[in-house]
Fold this sequence. Notes:
By secondary structure, the chain is of the alpha/beta class. It is 51% helix and 13% strand. It has helices at residues 5-15, 27-40, 50-56, 58-68, 85-93, 108-125, 145-151, 155-165, 191-200, 215-223, 236-244, 254-270, 277-299, and strands at residues 19-23, 44-48, 75-82, 98-101, 128-133, 169-172, 205-207, 247-252. An 8-stranded parallel β-barrel has the order 1-2-3-4-5-6-7-8, surrounded by 10 helices. α3 crosses α4, α5 runs parallel beside α6 (108-125) and α10 packs parallel to α12. The longest helix is centred in the C-terminal third of the chain and has 23 residues, at 277-299. The relative contact order is 0.16. Zinc ion binds at residues 81, 178, 208, 251.
Amino acid sequence: MLVAAKKILVRARAKKYAVPAFNINHLEALKAIMAAAEKMKSPVIVQTTEGAIDYAGVEYLAALIRVAASGKIPVIMHLDHGKNLKYFQAALACGYTSVMLDGSLLPYAKNVALTKTVVSLARKYGASVEAEIGAIKGIEDLVSVAEKDAVLTKPEEAARFVQDTGCDSLAVAIGTAHGAYKFKGETHLDIERLKKIAQLVKLPLVLHGASGVRADLLKLAERHGAKLGHARGVLDADIKNAVKHGVAKVNIDTDLRLAFTAGVRQAVDDQPQVIDPRKLLEPAIHLMAEVAMQKMKLLGSAGQK
Length: 305
Ligand code: G3H
Ligand code: 13P
Ligand code: ZN
């Protein structure tokens, strides 16, 4: 069933588990995610970026997700990293139950103003709003304490921001980065900062850039031609620690991309005679579903539907 994010995420934070939020651009990823959610009995967030909407069309995506949500599993249809109002209007009109306004690169006052505009628009549709303060960027790119403080979420500012905007959940920057190259050396999340934020902000917190970049998938993709050199993701232990301290939504895109790519490369290499796209995509769907199930177990959302 299609649901708004707020209630599901408040419950998740209270019970110390997190709901996985997977990015999709196409049917195969959605089928994999739903197969995993049904097997694990897990609520799930299916999210699309503005780029996904440009690629597939908002009506197509909304229709696919609506069908996926027609069973018993609670599904949230979410706009990820929304920046332009036209995408919010289109998504909400198509039935999205949750939207994120990413004003993280704007000055504080502009981020607040834009977030408030989106909150009042979303309220008309009964949809929830995720906002962001601090920039999602690898911690190792930041050398000094002052530099870290300029980019990572400041606990007091986060508390003021949720008061000023009336958002329903808050994405925080504690050292993760998007994509497959998150860390140059040791992986490191600023859990002490997260603890301070969680003391001051009682809303569900959101962790972006949370893919683990699994070594076995990297190897599989590389065996079939990809060159992924120094790719490195967030450790499972760090994800678990973040969930203990207020994180109730965990965003995963790269790990599904990696599974898809590994599966397709292997299928194309192993079956040179095959020209049926369904046969070439099937192993990728299985790999993505396996990754999604692993996330549901890790986050503790399995069994929480
Ligand atoms: O942050 C979200 C994604 O990982 C980037 O997705 O390429 O669809 O913008 P995109
Ligand atoms: P990853 O690149 O780590 O999968 O992060 C995805 C994300 O944050 C989507 O909003
Ligand atoms: Zn993100």
